[in-house]
Specification:
alpha+beta, 4-stranded antiparallel beta sheet
Length: 183
């Protein structure tokens, strides 16, 4: 007689536990503001990469199809190979101190947002990486103040840039200097 109800009750308890667990997961999912996975903030401070010289584009063997960022600073062309910004968080912020007017390039690999700052008469403030925000945007610290990579209110002057290929950029600007990320 014991065998007749024991096994169905035993396995039924697992089914009941599974239903309760699934209900809890569904309830938590519906509570989230974006109905998706929740991210936590990750904080750190990094200076990024600092470059003091760019090399002449004519001296580089870069494939013509390589994606780059092209920037004009004081009517002087500069190019930055996009691949150079990938691999580590440290590489996603570049301080280019190669000319009279420094440039900072910030490239967030998670949101695919690129920002180029500088080129003005005023010196650039201290710009650092501050980690990841809860919405998974890169955090920039400008003189210690926290800003999202996507913020429209960053207290920095932005430079226009062109995202193109190395072949197109060097044809239009043969005197360009380039950052490849290779040491």
């Amino acid at each position: 007689m014991l065998r007749n109800w024991f096994w169905p009750a035993f396995f039924g308890s697992f089914v009941l536990a599974g239903m309760v667990g699934a209900g809890w997961v569904t309830w938590k999912f519906l509570q989230s503001p974006t109905n998706g996975p929740r991210y936590t903030e990750s904080k750190f401070v990094s200076e990024g990469t600092v470059v003091h010289t760019l090399v002449a584009g004519k001296e580089q063997s870069i494939p013509d199809t390589e994606p780059i960022l092209g920037v004009m600073v004081d009517d002087r062309p500069r190019a930055y190979v996009l691949q150079a910004f990938s691999g580590s968080v440290q590489r996603s912020l570049l301080h280019d101190n190669s000319g009279e007017n420094p440039v900072v390039v910030s490239c967030c690999g998670r949101t695919m947002t690129i920002r180029v700052f500088g080129g003005g008469e005023q010196p650039l403030p201290m710009i650092q990486l501050g980690g990841w925000r809860a919405d998974q945007t890169q955090e920039l610290l400008v003189n210690g103040q926290s800003h999202s990579q996507k913020s429209e209110t960053l207290p920095l002057s932005e430079l226009p840039f062109e995202q193109t290929t190395w072949g197109a950029w060097k044809t239009a600007h043969p005197e360009t200097r380039v950052y490849t990320g290779r040491e």
